[in-house]
UniProtKB/TrEMBL annotation:
<feature type="transmembrane region" description="Helical">
    <location>
        <begin position="115"/>
        <end position="136"/>
    </location>
</feature>
<feature type="transmembrane region" description="Helical">
    <location>
        <begin position="203"/>
        <end position="225"/>
    </location>
</feature>
<comment type="similarity">
    <text>Belongs to the CDP-alcohol phosphatidyltransferase class-I family.</text>
</comment>
<feature type="transmembrane region" description="Helical">
    <location>
        <begin position="231"/>
        <end position="249"/>
    </location>
</feature>
<keyword id="KW-0808">Transferase</keyword>
<dbReference type="InterPro" id="IPR048254">
    <property type="entry name" value="CDP_ALCOHOL_P_TRANSF_CS"/>
</dbReference>
<keyword id="KW-1133">Transmembrane helix</keyword>
<keyword id="KW-0812">Transmembrane</keyword>
<dbReference type="InterPro" id="IPR043130">
    <property type="entry name" value="CDP-OH_PTrfase_TM_dom"/>
</dbReference>
<feature type="transmembrane region" description="Helical">
    <location>
        <begin position="33"/>
        <end position="51"/>
    </location>
</feature>
<protein>
    <submittedName>
        <fullName>CDP-alcohol phosphatidyltransferase family protein</fullName>
    </submittedName>
</protein>
<dbReference type="Pfam" id="PF01066">
    <property type="entry name" value="CDP-OH_P_transf"/>
</dbReference>
<dbReference type="InterPro" id="IPR000462">
    <property type="entry name" value="CDP-OH_P_trans"/>
</dbReference>
<keyword id="KW-0472">Membrane</keyword>
Length: 254
């Protein structure tokens, strides 16, 4: 099942793992594996990637980074196939992503000549990019009657769905707000009326998809293989300028 109606689908550079994710999800559909199990799987893959980065196994690190992206798409696909969406899975996925992203950047900082300030600013930029992508993507899905598991504004914990407890949802929502709050607030301040604008065209969403986590991890994997580990964090820091470019385009035309 797609998150968007056919006419609003766009080329998503961050979603290259979706075809494989769908195959894995179909294979797991009639098993006891749940989307949460898959999420745990991508956490393990991310930890393997960190180990490989720290020990100089960059080809293996690249593999585990890409595999993590594939599994990151698989949990949602499996939830839709089993028709068991959950806020527990949605928030666990997001919390795991930001913690792993921080560990990825710490690992790269330890093997490169960058200062800790470059590391921190690049990480902030990385998360800001991903937040803008998710912000516009969720708005689009809500406008065109797509998948609505994610919400445009995360003000309070949602009511637990069937098969999950409210306590689990509340705890994970609290963690989500702590970890993502500053990024959500920053993007909201920069473009607070985005949900009132026009439906963003496919070409613009394709450009913004370069902010998606899947594409970000692919860039990191590629630069590690090419021996450009020292340039990874400066790249993401510089690319954060595109946040203002995309917001400017949205405000001027849509």
């Amino acid at each position: 099942m797609s998150k968007l109606p056919k006419e609003h689908k766009f080329i998503d550079f961050s979603d290259y793992g979706r075809p494989i994710a769908r195959l894995i999800a179909k294979a797991l559909k009639n098993t006891k594996f749940t989307p949460i199990h898959v999420t745990i799987g991508f956490i393990i893959s991310g930890l393997f990637a960190i180990y490989c980065i720290l020990n100089g196994y960059y080809w293996l690190a690249a593999f585990f980074l890409v595999f993590k992206s594939v599994l990151d798409a698989t949990d949602g696909e499996l939830a839709r196939l089993k028709q068991k969406p959950s806020y527990t899975g949605r928030y666990l996925d997001s919390v795991a992503d930001i913690v792993l992203n921080a560990l990825f950047f710490i690992s790269i900082w330890l093997i490169s000549n960058n200062s800790i300030w470059i590391c921190l600013l690049a990480f902030f930029g990385l998360q800001l990019q991903g937040t803008l992508y998710n912000y516009y993507y969720v708005i689009l899905r809500n406008k065109v009657n797509g998948d609505t598991t994610s919400r445009v504004f995360e003000y309070k914990a949602p009511i637990a769905l069937r098969g999950e407890t409210q306590k689990q949802v509340n705890i994970l929502f609290c963690l989500y707000k702590i970890l993502y709050g500053i990024f959500d607030k920053t993007i909201y301040i920069l473009d607070s009326d985005a949900d009132l604008g026009k439906i963003l065209p496919n070409w613009l969403m394709t450009g913004i998809s370069t902010f998606g986590l899947g594409f970000q991890l692919l860039v990191i994997a590629t630069m590690l293989i090419l021996g450009l580990k020292t340039l990874i964090m400066p790249f993401f820091l510089a690319y954060t300028l595109m946040v203002f470019v995309f917001i400017g385009i949205r405000k001027l035309f849509y």
